[in-house]
Amino acid sequence: MNVTLEDARRIIAAAEARADEMGQPMNIAVVDAGGNLVAHVRQDGAWIGSIDISISKAWTSRAFDITTKDLGDNAQPQQQFFGIHTTNGGKVAIFAGGVPLMRDGQVVGAVGVSGGSGEQDHSVAEAGAAAF
User: Fold this and answer.
1) Is 5-130 a domain of CATH 3.30.450.150?
2) For the chain, what are the domain ranges?
3) Global pTM?
4) For a Cys staple, 114 with which of 12, 18, 53, 66, CB 3.0–4.6 Å?
């Protein structure tokens, strides 16, 4: 089981529709079960600095099979994963916008979104994941 390019296009289309609805241009990345980039889109006007962030959020969500929002909540001082963002060559993103993609109860990839507030990023990622 893996995320195909067709899947990624459907996920991105749903995420773009949600971003358009809120009027916030986004970067949207989809990775497969191995954390490899399947597809990415930068909407017109989305920050170029958020390209790598969206990819890192997708990778992180797949690497730990958790939303980056939940990982971030557990990565604060005095929490169990404090400092995790310093691992994996600094690739770990600990703020909202990464959501695992599930198929038959297994994580088979993830979507990562960056370009708005954490709440906006998470909402757009959830919309993409729902289309999977």
Assistant:
1) yes
2) 5-130
3) 0.96
4) 53
